[in-house]
Amino acid sequence: MKKQNVCLGNLRGGSDCLAADFKSTVKKRNNGFTLVELLVVIAIIGVLIVVAGCPGGVKTSKVTGTVLVDEQPVEDVFVMFTPSDGGRPAAARTDKFGKYSLALTDKISGCMPGPHVVRITAEKTIPNPRFGQTTESGVPEPAEILQQYIPVQYNSSAHKNPDMTVTVKEGTNSFDFQVSSK
């Protein structure tokens, strides 16, 4: 078949045609999708699943509590529950009353049931004793630095501390922690 030009309205010498070789186009499409088209669709579906997540598929329990540092509530203390069997950790920051409420993600509140190691960390800004000096690479030292003020037995070595191991049960749970900054 001979292909013909597509004409719209009176754009080409007064002709009112809209003709093309539609039969060959339809014939080509009857063969189904190409491999590239299928791969693109599969990739898009995969991205959508990863981005949207599956919040309905994760079973969580509500976990709240209070963290006291040196017997005082402290704001902005980071609390993280890490499942002992290697699941997804849940975390929260304390409010000005030392209260926290765990979440797995921004959209999924709670924590997965089971045994967990709890890690508690907090930083404060302190004057930098090296202020005015430069690093080995020639960068000036800042006036202030962040210092971790919760001892390691409550965070990086928490797995060795029996006081930092809890079991989250199905439903609502409350765990309070009293830690020392010394």
Describe what you observe in this structure.
The chain is 14% helix and 28% strand. The longest helix is centred in the first third of the chain and has 18 residues, at 35-52. Strands 1, 2, 5, 10 and 11 form a 5-stranded mixed β-sheet that branches. Strands 4-3-6-9 form a 4-stranded antiparallel β-sheet, with no helix packed on it. It folds into 2 domains: 1-31, no CATH class; 59-179, Immunoglobulins (Immunoglobulin-like, Sandwich). The chain starts with 21 loop residues before the first helix and ends with a strand. By secondary structure, it is of the alpha+beta class. It is built from 2 helices and 11 strands, in the order ααβββββββββββ. A hairpin with a 6-residue loop joins β3 and β4. The model is unreliable at 6-12 and 14-29 (pLDDT under 50).
Summary?
The chain is α+β, with helices and mostly antiparallel strands. It has helices at residues 22-29, 35-52; strands at 62-69, 72-73, 78-83, 90-93, 99-101, 114-121, 123-127, 144-148, 165-168, 172-174, 177-179. The protein folds into 2 domains: 1-31, no CATH class; 59-179, Immunoglobulins (Immunoglobulin-like, Sandwich), CATH 2.60.40.
